[in-house]
Amino acid sequence: MKFSKAYEPNEYEPDVYALWEKSGAFKPTQNKKADYYTIVMPPPNANGNLHIGHGLTIALEDILTRYHRLIGDNTWYIPGADHAGFETWVVYERFLESQGKSRFDYTRDQLYTQVWNFVHEQRGNMELQLRALGASCDWDSLTFTLDPKVTKTVYSTFKKLWDDGLIYRGEKLVNFCTKHQTAFADIEVTYKDEAGKLWQIAYPLVEPTEGFDELVVATTRPETMLGDTAIAVNPEDKRYQALIGKKVQLPLTDREIPIIADEHADMEYGTGVVKITPAHDQNDYEVGQRHNLPMITVIGFDGKMTEAAGANYENLTTEEARKKVLKNLNEQGLLRGEEDIKHAVGHCYKCDTTIEPLLKEQWFVDVKPLAQRAIKVLKEGKIKFHPASKKQVLINYLEQLKDWNISRQIPWGIPIPAFQNIDDPTDWIFDERVEQFEIKKNGKTYVRDEDTFDTWFSSGQWPYITTSDRKEHFPTSVMETGADLLFQWVGRMIMLSLYVTNDVPFKEVYMHGMVLDEKGQKMSKSKGNVINPIEIVSQYGSDALRLGLIASRSAGVNQAFSTSKVIASRNLCNKLWNISRLIQQMVDENPKGNKQLTIDNYSEDWICFHLNQANKELQKLLASYRFAEAGDLLYDLIWNKYADWFLESEKLWKDTTLLKSTLEQVLIMLHPFAPFVTETIWQTLSWTEGILITQKWPELYKVDTKRVKKFDELKDIIANIRSHFQSLPGAQAYPVAFDDDPLVYANQLLIQHLTKAPSVPKLPTEELSGLRLAIPGHNIYLQIPEKVLNQHKENLEERILKLGQEINTLNARLDNPRYVEKAPKELVEETREQLATKQNLLEKMKAELQLI
RNA sequence: GGGCGGUUAGCUCAGUUGGCUAGAGCGCGUCUUUGACGUAGACGAGGUCAUAGGUUCGAAUCCUAUACCGCCCACCA
């Protein structure tokens, strides 16, 4: 292969990925002496396309993976594919609708098979996209969330919970979406503030007492009054003491309901009297439990009023029923007012339908013991969080967690392995023969529960399921995922893992924020601002996307996508490509690696020093998940140090041995971040062997720091000269003269080369004239004509003024006895040195001014 | 109501335990066809670090308060 003029990512990326995959580099090594490093990929939706958030996830996880592979760990990055129960079901149901069909046209088993085929037709697409992003994961270990090993574990966990009495079937209020016909966990409901109305309704007392003949309650949902089974006042409320235990006539019905005392009633709010509808409100349900109230379901799963709502209202939608109830109440003179208010209303996160709290028999997990254990482990610091603040947030959540409804009325998912006795609805048994609709046991006939598990019940067990074939990789090293999944996924993984394995699922958690659009808005299909990562890859290359995504991004913080960062990254890749191209040319010209012998090639010590620094710093940054800083560091190393100074200098020295070795180091260190371009270069260079992905992380160079300082000094001189050449009137180069100055003398060529000075003559001190550079320790003059010099005078005066101010600042600091006493000695010493340097400089500048 | 985060250059953002002249990318200005790269090179302009107090020898960094922006949780009869 040859180096073309510009790096064209699309020409090389697919082949490079295939090379890796074929080489077996993605498989974990089995070195007993090495550490184990394991990342489980949050499984992307099997039949979906990757979005930009996946781009970030893969970038972060793959950087860690490749880095740990390079440092020699037994590294295992486990890919996954999610059946995404509800998500996929929604897509499929939409498809059914478009065919003029509905879920009710098929049995559950038929539906399951249909979706299975639907998903498998599309599957593979997502996996190709992961490859395009460069994920160096072990494809042989790919786990689909419906694989037998998953369901097997899920069933055994369910059984264990069942046997431990932590699973129960209960009729409780669940969050029900009447469109999707399924219940949700509390966490899945999206609350929105909406404008609503608060209506006051009078409930007449059956027997007027103590001057009361009615009680007024307030409600935002008048239609639910048909299901009221009590009204409540606060036990402390003096106004209503005498009424407790009496009855009111429930308007629009023929029922009489009791007045009860319960703390739920807030004396301060409204009239202090609250209606109780246990079947349709979470708080009321709890009141109902405390007082053994009957529960009357007036809204059905179809979202329409039931028979129990009365003949007048049956089959009306809740909205129609609300209007009619209000109208009827008004006719009876029982409507006492209405008020505009704002209140939060729960919505289905997929279709936005208002969530109805409805009574339903479901499987629940008693989470208290699980949560307690998780809290304990978190408090003990067994899992490290990035950002650290998320730990406490999770603890707070776990402390108030209510029992977890794990039943979903969706055909697409893992069937719940429970069967019900057809003769005794309370008799449920556990059995794994879920492929059968009906089973016989002990002479009794049992029918399978139609429901499936909440996706999070299975994905909550992901870390120990996916690593079950290589147990030494559990607990995994780090769980990297979106900050929005803290509760529903991270929390559940911790609880279930402790329960099942007695161990934490991972040692660290890194949570990334959302990738927003360029304007900082959340991306959504409806807004049309979605950025497709694969399009970015084809436009700028996979490496550019990775580097662009991690730039300026810190843990847990939402951050806008920035095309300019992607472009800057693309340019970096091209820069590195051209660096390699130049070095290859030099190597071709001088294949034996002979170097021109010189003792003054300080740039070589200097670059080795900075490569060492970068090497150490990168390890630190990656250990603390500071990806953005690591990216910056590499950008600066490659561009500002390696190319602009080292390589420019090396055009003189041409030490191809060092050029090769330093380039290799650069390629290895950048490889985790930009795998494609670095590997492509590795494959293109004439002397490299094998594949880059499995190289060893570089050793440090031996460096003479005195020589490094020499080059820093030279850099200063060169930068100073360049700056003058640019800013002097006419912006042109002049000869650079010096006297007895060993550093400059030895580097005449370099200075000339890097400043474009026409010549760099050595002269006797008395012959030096022109503009003197304000560099302490050196007598260097730019030989410029007198006219130009005068114009320069003003600049100089300005600088002297500024320098004087800086000296004042330092003086003030040193004049402060407390500073000298209390600040660290090195720091004080440093200040003194600075002061001396600056004073020295000031004197020289003043002298220079006088010369002019 | 409870909690979390943010406010630093024109824009997007870094800035680890307080300590060099507060940084980067993009953008902007001037100059440059140099043994690779114009997706480039050189030089440069640009910041009262939201505000007000406090702690400290020293604060973008720690504390308190305020303002504005964003997010999460709970509640809203």
What does this structure look like?
- With 852 residues, the chain is of the alpha+beta class.
- The protein is 44% helix and 18% strand.
- It has a four-stranded antiparallel sheet with strand order 6-5-14-16. Strands 10-11-9-12 form a four-stranded mixed sheet, covered by helices on one side.
- α13 (486-501) links the parallel β23 and β24 (506-512).
- The chain binds one RNA strand of 77 nucleotides through β8, β12, β13, α10 and β26.
Calculate Rg over CA atoms.
37 Å
Residue windows where pLDDT falls under 50 for at least 5 positions: none
What's the number of helices? 26
Name the average pLDDT.
Answer: 89
Percent of residues in helices comes to 40-55%
Strand order of the largest sheet: 6-5-14-16
Outline:
This protein is an alpha+beta fold and about 850 residues long. It is elongated, with a radius of gyration of 37 Å.
Essential attributes:
852 residues, alpha+beta, 29 strands, 44% helix, RNA-binding
How is the topology of this model organized?
Blueprint: H1 9-23, E1 36-40, H2 52-70, E2 74-78, E3 80-81, H3 85-98, H4 108-122, H5 125-132, E4 143-144, H6 148-163, E5 167-177, E6 182-184, E7 189-209, E8 212-219, E9 230-233, E10 247-249, E11 256-261, E12 273-276, H7 282-291, H8 318-331, E13 335-348, E14 356-365, H9 368-379, E15 384-386, H10 389-399, E16 404-405, E17 407-408, E18 418-421, E19 424-430, E20 438-441, E21 444-448, E22 452-453, H11 455-459, H12 462-466, E23 476-482, H13 486-501, E24 506-512, E25 515-516, H14 533-540, H15 542-550, E26 559-560, H16 563-589, H17 602-623, H18 627-653, H19 656-670, H20 675-684, H21 705-727, E27 736-738, H22 742-746, H23 748-755, E28 771-772, E29 780-782, H24 786-815, H25 817-822, H26 825-851
Helix pairs in contact: 1-20, 2-15, 9-10, 9-13, 14-15, 15-16, 16-18, 16-19, 17-18, 17-19, 17-21, 18-19, 19-20, 24-26
The structure holds one RNA strand of 77 nucleotides.
